[in-house]
Amino acid sequence: AQSVTQPDIHITVSEGASLELRCNYSYGATPYLFWYVQSPGQGLQLLLKYFSGDTLVQGIKGFEAEFKRSQSSFNLRKPSVHWSDAAEYFCAVVRNNAGNMLTFGGGTRLMVKP
Amino acid sequence: NAGVTQTPKFQVLKTGQSMTLQCAQDMNHNSMYWYRQDPGMGLRLIYYSASEGTTDKGEVPNGYNVSRLNKREFSLRLESAAPSQTSVYFCASTPGGQPYEQYFGPGTRLTVT
After folding, report:
1. Distance CA B25, CA B72 (A)
2. Partners of residue B101 in chain A, C-beta under 8 Å
């Protein structure tokens, strides 16, 4: 069965510090990977996606993620966090059957200290 | 361009009551989805519609029914609400075919007492 794991439920960083959010997946074939962000009381917004090619992908709001096949990971990074980045972040994998169905990790809630 | 819209935004039901959550998209997308979000569990797929006229079960379909009314609209019905269905419900859509990104609505917060 396909699964997505985000080991960190909560992370707190200081404004201006770097950030890395972890995501691991279990999947037998080449995965399609996504990171979404959810601000309080809002829907989900796509930050970035990986389908193939360059394993380092750039997204919106200064985020990037690196696909590492050997580690089954797709970690999200940002060099300098802003207070507005406080939100919940979800990693997701698309399922390989018809319907383009996403399987989500449990989410990581990011808090930013001034 | 409104994207994906959902109504209502909030709802409180008593156990055993029924209701329908409405979702509409104006992006001419083929595929639509209903998810529920519970703390620590991410989003779980309830039902989806790969194209107009088709619907299929997702990971957690029990207690729900759906209708793909037309290409724009995809409704989720709770026939007899239970406290376990207290959750935030999200509708999403995507063009279909390739694994394109899904576009999410703002959500409906449902409480069943």
Report:
1. 5
2. 34, 46, 49
For residue B100, the distance in angstroms to the closest alpha carbon of chain A comes to 8
From first to last of its 113 residues, what are the pLDDT tens digits of chain B? 679 999 999 999 999 999 999 999 999 999 999 999 998 888 999 999 988 989 999 999 999 999 998 999 999 999 999 999 999 999 999 987 767 789 999 999 999 99
- Flag whether residue A111 sits within 8 Å of chain B, measured between CB atoms: no
Q: Which amino acid is at B41?
A: M
Residue B111 near residue B17 (C-beta atoms within 8 A): no
Give dist(CA B104, CA A104) in Å, integer. 14
- Minimal CA separation from B82 to chain A, in Å: 23
* Token code pair at residue A63: 């985020």
**CB–CB contact B43 A98 (8 Å):** no
CB-based contact, A45 to chain B, within 8 Å: yes
Which DSSP state fits A61? G
